[in-house]
Specification:
Layout: E1 6-9, H1 10-23, E2 29-36, E3 41-42, H2 47-52, E4 55-57, E5 66-72, H3 78-84, E6 97-101, E7 118-122, E8 131-135, E9 140-141, E10 143-149
Length: about 160
């Protein structure tokens, strides 16, 4: 695991694990997008996380470090996807990773998994420690949780 670590915000990881738990025994696939560390807002890490080093502070990262912070809901636009074969729920070229749940407990990538540059695989009991990160070539990478949140987006700003 000598490759660059994969960074993910603590709230995003919590939501992804909740989605996986709710979908079990079915698997879930979620597209993820990254935000530069400089564009995230810091979040305080719980005391127990600070002592065991499981959560990094935002200011420990270089400003241009990509941190996975957002996801696109699975199944958005599914009706049109089934008809036209186009995934309308995920903006083209805007996701750099995929989160997959493997309810069978096998954390390894399979030939059926939808591969991206980075793939996160979660297995029961749906805890941060049971999530494994992989690079495009299937090599395992370390997963680092960051005490940060994505900035709030005003969806009405363009209208």
């Amino acid at each position: 695991m000598s490759q660059t670590p994969v960074f993910i915000t603590r709230p995003l990881l919590a939501v992804l694990l909740e989605l996986a738990a709710d979908a079990s025994p079915q698997s879930v696939t979620v597209s993820l997008s990254a935000t530069a560390a400089a564009d995230l807002d810091p979040q305080s890490a719980p005391a127990e996380a600070k002592s065991d080093g499981s959560v990094r502070r935002l200011d420990d990262l270089e400003p241009d470090t990509p941190v996975f912070s957002d996801f696109y809901f699975p199944d958005v636009g599914n009706a049109l996807e089934f008809v036209f074969g186009v995934d309308l729920g995920t903006p083209a070229g805007q996701t750099q990773a995929r989160f997959l749940s493997h309810p069978d407990g096998n954390p390894e990538l399979s030939m059926r998994d939808d591969l991206h540059a980075t793939v996160l695989v979660a297995v029961p009991p749906w805890e941060p420690a049971t999530v494994v990160a992989f690079g495009r070539n299937g090599t395992e990478r370390s997963l680092v949780t960051v005490a940060a949140v994505a900035p709030e987006t005003d969806f009405d700003a363009d209208y």
